[in-house]
């Protein structure tokens, strides 16, 4: 039995053909694979409140870096493995310590690397990296529920001052 059996893996890559083949290979190996998500927004929607054992994340999505999304995943204690083109530079800072797979990749290599990484991170309490707080949201980016709670709090403060 492989370590991937029943593991939940999110695949985020803007190359849809590669992403689909990767998801298919993961599923054949027994993993529950989500995706491929083409953007970080799409990935966040797929993720929702699901528990995920690993995120396979392309370092560049449509020409933009995915470092911020990787930090958000790490803040949620989700292990991340990067995938990148050979000419793309390695993520900087605390993300530099995360595994990086160089494309082109074949399914067997990815499965072996994912299996190895998951066996290393299993039960690890050290998934969170230093300074992984997600960037604070502006008022326009906050959820409707958060804005409602803030309005109620402001109203209560005003009424208490009367």
From TrEMBL:
PROSITE patterns assigned: RESPONSE_REGULATORY (PS50110)
UniProt KW keywords: Phosphoprotein
4-aspartylphosphate, modified sites: 58
Superkingdom of origin: Bacteria
Statement: the UniProt record of this protein carries the keyword Phosphoprotein: yes
InterPro entries: CheY-like_superfamily, Sig_transdc_resp-reg_receiver
Keyword Transferase: no
Transmembrane region(s): none
First and last residue of the signal peptide: none
Domain Response regulatory: 8-118
Protein name: Response regulatory domain-containing protein
Lineage: Bacteria, Pseudomonadati, Pseudomonadota, Alphaproteobacteria, Hyphomicrobiales
